[in-house]
Amino acid sequence: MLLLQHKRFCLLAVTGCLAAQTFDAASVKPFDVSRIATASPQERRAWGQPTGGPGTSDPGRIRYPGVALQVLLLQAFDINNFQLAGPAWLESERFDIDATLPPGATKAQFRAMLQNLLVERFKLATHSETKELPGYALVIGRKAKIKESAGPAAPPNDGAPVSLKLGPDRYFVPPDRQGVFFQLTGVNSARSTFRQVTMPELAATLQNQLKRPVTDATGLTAKYDFVLSYATEGLSLGSGRLPVGPGSEETPPDLLSALPEQLGLKLEARKVSTQVIVVDHIEKTPTGN
């Protein structure tokens, strides 16, 4: 649940509210649109894509070249497009942002810093609503084909970069930690290795790739290990570099077909109660650095 206030806000956690966090320093400048005419294709692809920050090789500094306000809001609240309601110009107003973070800042603390930056520089005010949106329910098909995790708990996924090596099957060996390890296996194919994950975590992964609400309705409460291979055409794969393994010998099924075939689970179309962040106020011109 999100608790949102007009001037300051914070995320509610089990133990209470995250303390207010701020960047050590932050520069926010309007994007120079004249750069569009002379920019190379490589420069254009970089616009809106952050470099650095927690979980990268440069955790103490993050840069956003030509980033839209919409992208900043989605990252600040850790939500998808369908969970944000605001003016259409959020997609077109772009900025160059360069910020430094305190040593050891976590991803959750970074999101709080980004929220506070939007409040302080753009006078952001929001509230949350619950809406019924078209989406999916993750349910058991004829019979679940997944096995519960065995053995000791793996280390949690702290987002830190890892060194990868090819295994005997010539696919990358997943890192020794909980969560999802995603690797491309061709132009439009991928393999996701899930380790000690819950069904709500699987639903969240599917939601991020499908960009539609997905809720867990399996009734399964344990943690599970499994592998899912599927076609990626039409899916959102996020930003940043992705490990690329060998190409598949056969074309994998699409995601909706792969779930019942490989895991014994399926997605049923239905309305899903979804929390949406509504932008009440935000200014196009930020305050000075």
Which SSEs are present, and which pair or pack?
Layout: E1 2-3, E2 10-13, E3 16-17, E4 25-30, H1 35-38, H2 41-46, E5 51-52, E6 61-68, H3 69-77, E7 84-85, E8 94-100, H4 107-122, E9 125-140, E10 147-148, E11 179-186, E12 189-197, H5 199-210, E13 214-216, E14 224-231, H6 255-263, E15 265-281
Parallel strand pairs: 7-15, 9-13
Antiparallel strand pairs: 1-2, 2-3, 4-8, 5-6, 6-8, 9-15, 10-14, 11-12, 12-14
* SSE ordering: EEEEHHEEHEEHEEEEHEEHE
| Biggest sheet strand line-up | 4-8-6-5
Count of alpha/pi helices:
6
- Helix share, percent: 10-25%
Q: Whole-number radius of gyration? A: 20 Å
Number of domains: 2
- Give the amount of beta strand, in percent: 25-35%
Q: Number of DSSP strands?
A: 15
What summary fits the major beta sheet? 4 strands, antiparallel
User: Low-confidence runs (pLDDT<50, min 5 residues)?
Assistant: 1-19
Q: Report the end-to-end length measured between terminal Cα atoms.
A: 32 Å
The structure class reads alpha+beta
**Average pLDDT over all residues:** 87
Tell the overall outline.
globular
